[in-house]
Amino acid sequence: MKRIIGVIVAGVIAFSGVYALAASLSVTSNALGAGVSTVAACQGATLNATYVPSYQAGLPGYSAGTVTLNGLASSCYGVPYKVTLSNGSNISLGEVTGTTPTSGTTLVVTFTTVNAASVTGVAVVLGG
Questions:
Q1: Is there a contact between 103 and 65 (Cβ–Cβ < 8 Å)?
Q2: Do 35 and 125 meet the contact criterion of CB atoms below 8 Å apart?
Q3: C-alpha distance from residue 106 to each of 13, 56, 68 (Å)
Q4: I need a surface site. Which of 45, 48, 84, 123 has the fewest CB within 10 A?
Q5: Is residue 32 domain-resident?
Q6: Domain assignment of residue 36, yes or no
Q7: Which range marks the domain in which residue 60 is found?
Q8: Number of domains comprising the chain
Q9: Distance of alpha carbon 5 from alpha carbon 88, whole angstroms
Q10: Are 29 and 83 within 8 A, CB to CB?
């Protein structure tokens, strides 16, 4: 009986930790089905990621096109970034790297060969 109670208590503790971790994610999106949050020292607020599909005959179908990140903090101006689009198995479909702008709150990234129908997640890394 003590083992059963111990297993139940361990399960409750593990679930509580996972739930608390999931509640701290802050990537939002109106167009993508999932998000991954990487906390950057320069970015305390939520980034909102959206994309506009564009038709690509070679895929066939639509590519993810332009990914727009809104809410960039001024403390993140001029830092390196990496934006990765992934599928339902969390496999990278494509990534773009560069440097954030030195003004404004919007970062626009262009993907050309990522099938929009396959995209379920976006990961953004700011700095380092």
A1: no
A2: no
A3: 40, 25, 7
A4: 45
A5: yes
A6: yes
A7: 27-126
A8: 1
A9: 36
A10: no
> Along the 128 residues of the chain, how does pLDDT read in single tens digits?
544 444 454 454 544 443 333 333 344 444 444 555 555 578 888 889 888 888 888 777 888 888 999 999 999 999 999 999 999 999 999 999 999 999 999 999 998 788 888 999 999 888 86
Q: Is 21 part of any domain?
A: no
List the structure tokens of 46.
């939520």
pLDDT at 102: 95
Q: Give me 105's structure tokens.
A: 């709150």
In this structure, what token pair is assigned to residue 108? 């626009």
How far is it, in rounded angstroms, from Cα 74 to Cα 37? Answer: 19
SS (H, E, C) the chain: CHHHHHHHHHHHHHHHHHHHHHHCCCCEECCCCCEEECCECCECCCCEEEEEEEEECCCCEEEEEEEEEECCCHHHCCCEEEEEEECCCCCEEEEEEEECCCCCCEEEEECCCCEHHHCCEEEEEECC
Look up the pTM and report it.
0.67
